[in-house]
Amino acid sequence: MLKIAFHPEYIHPVRAGHRFPMEKYELIPLQLLHEGVVKTENFFEPVLVSFEIACLAHDPDYVQALFDLTLDPRMVRRIGFPLTGSLVDRERYLVDGTIKSALYAQQYGISFNVAGGTHHAGYDFGEGFCLLNDQAVAARYLLKNKLARKILIIDLDVHQGNGTAHIFQDDQDVYTFSIHGDKNFPFIKESSDLDLPVSDGITDDVYLQLLSQHLPNLFNKVKPDFVFYQAGVDILATDKLGKLKLSPAGCRLRDEFVLLNCLQYQVPVQVCMGGGYSLHIKDIVNAHCETFKIAVDLYNF
Questions:
Q1: For position 141, which CATH number holds?
Q2: Residue 182: exposed, middle, or buried by beta-carbon count in 10 A (0-12, 13-18, 19+)?
Q3: CA–CA separation, 266 vs 103, rounded Å?
Q4: What one-character DSSP code corresponds to residue 300?
Q5: Predicted confidence (pLDDT) per residue in 115-166, tens digit
Q6: Residue among 210, 106, 195, 112 nearest 155 (CA)
Q7: How many independent structural domains does the chain possess?
Q8: Strand ranges across the sheet with 110-113
């Protein structure tokens, strides 16, 4: 059964002045249900992740200040959201959702979190609308509990997963791979195990060729027994922040290629939605929903 993490708190009430489209987290499940792609029983509701588990990938002092709402104002500005208890709770829910989603992926081959992919949060900092790094915490959870030995994180959001790279810079058990806009945020990059920066305006053919040249080699080299996939749709030409020129078909082929490789190498995969900032919300939601549809088709749900 396909299992999908969703919590009502994912739709955090961030108002005018912020460009993060929170409404997509409500619309994705509604569209999937409306189209009959999934049923209500496919969704599960996460709980608040504990302090101890959050600290698997983050500095305890940073996590304590986050939970206590005592972060330095400069850090709050770096994150980009006003710091509130409900915002921190939202982040705690999505981290637990990704952990449980990873466990379901080991059972069913693949699982999703409607939110997540908060890859700008590093070991001791938040940034770019990210407070806690859900896939990093989930990776450390699997390793700590001996549920995985070698993890590959595939980050295809248009923005480099700098926080993920920061957390795992000295970790031999987690291999980080990122294709991202060279001239895009964050403007000071961290070093992933493999970074493939691309120029503004790149189109489907060039992007997909780059992915196909490197991803199968990584499966053979890294030999992961678990994959986390950050499937941001801000690579689309319609995206306000992405600066790339991929079509919806190209974005779909990207996701299909990643999931086909996971299937071919028989590696379970946990998928988070990541970024998407197209002018029209329907373009964001449609692109995200395609990722779910690909999974349903490939994994015969």
A1: 3.40.800.20
A2: middle
A3: 15
A4: T
A5: 999 999 999 999 999 999 999 999 999 999 999 999 999 999 999 999 999 9
A6: 195
A7: 1
A8: 43-44, 4-5, 110-113, 269-272, 226-230, 151-155, 174-181, 194-198
